[in-house]
Design brief:
- This protein is an alpha/beta fold.
- The chain contains twelve helices and eight strands.
- The chain has an eight-stranded parallel β-barrel with strand order 1-2-3-4-5-6-7-8, surrounded by five helices.
- The longest helix has 19 residues.
- It starts with 7 loop residues before the first strand and ends in a 6-residue tail after the last helix.
- Bound molecules: phosphoenolpyruvate.
Length: 254
């Protein structure tokens, strides 16, 4: 945790969830009691097909909603794409950009990610920018240089704590059940904080840095209390409201 940064737990449903999954959203909204909502922000990023229904369900509750990706342009001939403005029109608060699955599956480059971040800002969305090294890069001791490059090239000038959240997600920890050791996470998050502070000054010092990669109820307390870990981006464990709420419980006594 970082003093004065309200933690954020964001659930990334990925390509999971049809309308019958909306009951999980209702359970989340009901489970996020006032005491917990004071301690952390909780957001869910469902598939685009459920976005507007999700924001409607979350209306008048502390639960926030985000999208998983956007196109950089406002509109036009881009079949199958969704603009940040369309996401904003659905009344979402966040948009994940640069998730490693998109970098791998869709060949998104740092420059593509930076353009999407600017699109989010243009549409008044907070961008959750994902960065993280592969297992080969980790094994080769290249994690810091990879992250430095991703921070320089995926996060445009103008990033502030209000418009940008950084999610450190080691690619080898996503969906694998493996996590870096708490000491490794402490070290890498301190490195990310230094890089952000150097680039964005006080804004970098106040920017939310999430950890993502196999966070679950059983490891949440240990991982989320680490210095400069200001919350979590949660994949698999966000699909069940009870699991995501159990992760949030790590903050109740803070
Ligand atoms: C993710 O995809 O952002 C993620 C962190 O997944 P998981 O929690 O399943 O590792």
């Amino acid at each position: 945790m970082t003093p004065d940064i309200k933690p954020l737990v964001a659930g990334n449903w990925k390509m999971n969830g049809e309308r019958d999954k909306l009951d999980q959203l209702a359970l989340l909204a009901a489970g996020l009691d006032a005491e917990l909502a004071e301690k952390l922000d909780l957001a869910v990023c469902p598939p685009a097909t459920l976005l507007y229904v999700a924001t409607t369900l979350a209306e008048d509750t502390p639960l926030m909603v985000g999208a998983q990706n956007c196109h950089a342009e406002v509109e036009g001939a881009h079949t199958g794409e969704i603009s940040a403005e369309m996401i904003s029109d659905c009344e979402a608060d966040f948009c994940i950009v640069g998730h490693s699955e998109r970098r791998t599956d869709c060949g998104e480059t740092d420059a593509d990610v930076a353009a999407k971040v600017k699109a989010c800002w243009r549409a008044d969305l907070t961008a959750i920018v994902c960065i993280g090294e592969t297992e080969a890069q980790y094994d080769a001791g290249e994690a810091e240089s990879v992250l430095r490059g991703q921070i320089s090239n995926s996060i445009p000038d103008g990033a502030e704590e209000e418009n940008t959240v950084v999610a450190y997600e080691p690619v080898w920890a996503i969906g694998t059940g493996k996590t870096p050791s708490p000491d490794d996470i402490r070290e890498i998050h301190a490195f990310i904080r230094e890089e952000l502070a150097e680039r964005f000054g006080g804004h970098g010092e106040r920017m939310t840095i999430l950890y993502g990669g196999s966070v679950k109820p059983s490891n949440a307390s240990e991982l989320l209390m680490i210095e400069n870990v200001d919350g979590a981006l949660v994949g698999g464990a966000s699909l069940k409201a009870a699991d995501l709420l159990a992760i949030c419980e790590a903050y109740r006594k803070t």
